[in-house]
Design brief:
single chain; alpha+beta; two-stranded antiparallel ribbon; 5 helices; about 15% strand; globular
């Protein structure tokens, strides 16, 4: 834990805020008294992720998945996202999520940046340990004009 007040103040000054999804997840976790990483550690991790640019991150021991979502959000865009499941060894050995992962985009119709939850349907007895989201950027489509001479037969 960081206890030097000057260090805490400096680290907090690095904080640039979060996406709406992370803000909501953090607020909900605090309301439900679920522990998540402190703001100064979040600021430190942002800087660390920027410096080290890891390509693979494994989050172990999540509560609401805040740290995993945080690292996916602020890590490298092409970083590998790892799904972590819990359950009996027998069920995990035969788990196949090839056709069990989906993203519902039907509610996203306006231009903007969204954190969209990834739905993972797993069999009874298996639990997805952390929530996973993908970042969706919708832009307004520009009108395309086709230029060139018209074909005329004469």
């Amino acid at each position: 834990m960081i206890i030097d007040e000057r260090m805490v103040t400096y680290i907090n000054s690095l904080d640039t805020g979060h996406t709406p999804f992370l803000e909501n997840l953090e607020r909900t976790a605090k309301q439900d008294r679920v522990p998540i990483i402190r703001r100064e550690m979040q600021s430190f991790l942002k800087v660390f992720l920027k410096m080290k640019q890891p390509k693979r991150i494994l989050e172990v021991g999540t509560a609401v998945g805040f740290s995993a979502v945080f690292m996916a959000q602020y890590g490298e865009p092409d970083a590998e996202i790892t799904f972590q499941f819990s359950g009996s060894d027998e069920l995990l050995d035969v788990l196949d999520i090839t056709n069990a992962v989906s993203v519902d985009l039907s509610g996203y119709t306006q231009p903007g940046t969204y954190d969209v939850p990834v739905d993972v349907n797993v069999p009874k007895g298996i639990t997805l340990v952390n929530n996973v989201t993908v970042n969706l950027v919708l832009e307004e489509k520009q009108n395309e004009t086709v230029s060139g001479a018209e074909n005329s037969s004469g």
